[in-house]
Amino acid sequence: MTGHTLRLLRAGIWRSSVEWWSYRSFVITLVAGQTVTPLLGLFVWSSAVPGSSGITTYYVVLLAVQLVTVSFEHHTLANAIYGGEFAAELVKPRPVVLDLLATNLALRFWHLLFGLPVIVIVGLFAGVSLRGADLLLAVPAVVLAAALRFVFTYTLALSAVWMQRAHGVVGVGETLIFLLGGSAAPLTYLVGPLREIGAVLPFWSMLGAPAEVAAGNIREPLQLYATQAGWLVAFIVIAVVVWRRAVRRFTAFGG
User: Fold this and answer.
1) d(Cα 165, Cα 187) in Å, to the nearest integer?
2) DSSP structure class, residue 165
3) CA angle, 64 as apex, 56 and 221 as ends, to 5°?
């Protein structure tokens, strides 16, 4: 990014953060919704594997990862396409993705801030203990997961140009992340073939992988970083192709 682009992004993040603060009651309901799945997984797997500190640590960390990687482009982008605001965005002298990214980062900030008390309380009750070294190793994995999930959701949300069910398309993607991303079941507890397949799919890279690193289950994550980076490049290429076709279709039909 150029210096000018970074300044626009910072201004967008600030503007969006202030805007979403005025809707903080709604954001809190969004945060509550995002905490359900990790907490349910914690309850179910703690009952299935009683006394396992690895399970409790994993799901508490997964809760934090969920809050900092969540994406709502099916609302911000798809709704703008349906409502007609997308046409105005196309003629502005800046990339459309900048405002979407700024909103994404602002929402993730508020999700983490409002969700932090839940993370701390659950962690204390569960007796979670984390190593500083593992948390540092998890930082690149979290950043790559957050970027990957944004590009993935953004690409799916562009389906709004072709159909009226973009929310359903993104919902399918979210279901795949839940089932294969380490939320329904930690990857380390799956049998060999399933674990190996899950490790190379992009869904685990979006959610469960950073949690595994932070929980201390992966001590040498270089291969994981490479897998995440590879999927990120692949999804960026796909996003660019889909974006160009979406803009051509949108303008051709009088958007």
Assistant:
1) 31
2) -
3) 80
Number of domains in the chain: 1
Q: Which long-range contacts link 217-225 to residues 24+ away (Cβ below 8 Å)?
A: 217/54, 217/58, 217/188, 218/137, 219/134, 219/137, 221/137, 221/138, 221/140, 221/141, 224/141, 225/140, 225/141, 225/144
Q: Please, what are the averages of pLDDT over each run of 10 residues along the chain (255 residues)? A: 84 95 95 95 89 87 96 92 88 88 96 96 91 94 97 96 92 94 87 84 95 90 95 97 93 64
What amino acid is encoded at 83 in this protein? Answer: G
Distance CA 212, CA 60 (A): 11
From CA 208, how far away is CA 199, in angstroms rounded? 10
| Nearest C-alpha neighbor of 58 from the set 137, 123, 153, 112 | 123
Distances (CA, A) of 49 to 52, 53, 177: 6, 9, 23
Cα–Cα distance between 82 and 86 in angstroms, integer?
8
Contact 102, 239 (CB under 8 A): no
